[in-house]
Amino acid sequence: MSEAEEERWVAVMLDKLKAQEKRRRPGDAELAARAARLSEQYLGGRARPASVRWVTNQNTRWGSCTPSEGSIRLSHRLQGMPEYVIDYVLVHELAHLLEPGHGPAFWRLMEAYPRTERARGYLEGVVAGESLPYVPPARDEDREQEPALPGGESSD
What we know:
Blueprint: H1 3-24, H2 28-43, E1 51-55, E2 63-66, E3 71-75, H3 83-98, H4 104-110, H5 116-131
Parallel strand pairs: 1-3
Antiparallel strand pairs: 2-3
Helix pairs in contact: 2-3, 3-5
């Protein structure tokens, strides 16, 4: 495949991925309904946010909560991530409506959500991956060729 063909196919595939991602992103109304279901399921329905919405101004936090207002905001960076990760962040922020800090009482509330550790690991991996420099994959012609074994055999 030529470099021009490769660039064209990368653009086509990125467009397809963006379209898929857009279909997977819930809007604010769906997010609020999801929060209500999660509160019911994991917090006995005690956390009742006044508003739940996506925001684009949170680039260092996954979510935030203002207990005095009952508002929850999730970073747009979560959109397209696995549902269990979004659910974890929602349950985390819902728990802050009941327990503002990150003390033992807060983490006892979080024990109700069974995928807490898995979701935290996923998010830690995202953060670690973002800090790594991008290294483009090597093209076949750039790779060193292994010397052929005697008799024309390869090591593969």
